[in-house]
Amino acid sequence: MNTKMLVEENNQKRKLLNKENLAYYENMLVYIRLSYSKSDIATEEVLAEMLDHLLEAQEDGKTANDVFGDNPKAYAQEIAGALPNRIPRSFLSYFLMGTLFFMGASTIFNSLFNIILYYGFNKGDAEVNVFLGSFTVKTVLFLPIAFLLVYVIIQYLRWSAFKGINKILEFFIFWLYGLLSVALFLLVIYLLPPFGAAVNLPHWEVLIIGILLGLSGWFVLKKTQ
Description:
This is DUF1129 family protein. The chain crosses the membrane at residues 94-121, 171-192, 204-221. InterPro entries: DUF1129. Keywords: Membrane, Transmembrane, Transmembrane helix. By secondary structure, this protein is mainly alpha-helical. The protein folds into two domains: 3-82; 89-224, no CATH class. It is 76% helix and 4% strand. It contains nine helices and two strands; from the N terminus they run ααααααβααβα. The protein has helices at residues 3-13, 19-33, 40-59, 64-68, 72-82, 89-121, 132-160, 167-191, 203-224, and strands spanning 127-131, 198-202. Strands 1-2 form a two-stranded antiparallel sheet. Helix 2 runs parallel beside helix 5 and helix 6 runs antiparallel to helix 9. The longest helix has 33 residues, at 89-121.
């Protein structure tokens, strides 16, 4: 059975857990899956075994605490530590997804700002000059920023897995972090002087490019799930 089939089977079996056991198991699932240096297939196999064990215990009236103990984080760390090391495809997918979302958000925000400025206040230009030299440098600089963005999100999700953080607060944290990340990238854009051959693009074309980048990130996300 491949990784995708194991994930789909896990998604279906989890529906059989009661609310208490589901919350306990899903926290461990998030923590173990986000141990990004571990083998995909080995991770899903151990999660499948844990789920089967928990379902059997639940039929006997036992809880996840009875099966795995009252310190789920420590148990998840022990399980993750025993998994074979390998950079999994899921981490590469998450990195690609984060890169596409980040570039898409930055492009959309920048183009909308220029569109509003030009058509709403008659300021600026109808087109943007893309300098190929500085664009290449910005792209190279962007990659470590995107990597850091994904890495911090993964570390936060692992940290928050057993904290019971309010979902509204968590949404606000992600929104603020995303806003600051985009602002950092835009700061790099405006501070780097333009150089190289220039290509003129209307702002609406840049907006479409940003939307396509965002949709590509969404597609990668759906393929990863």
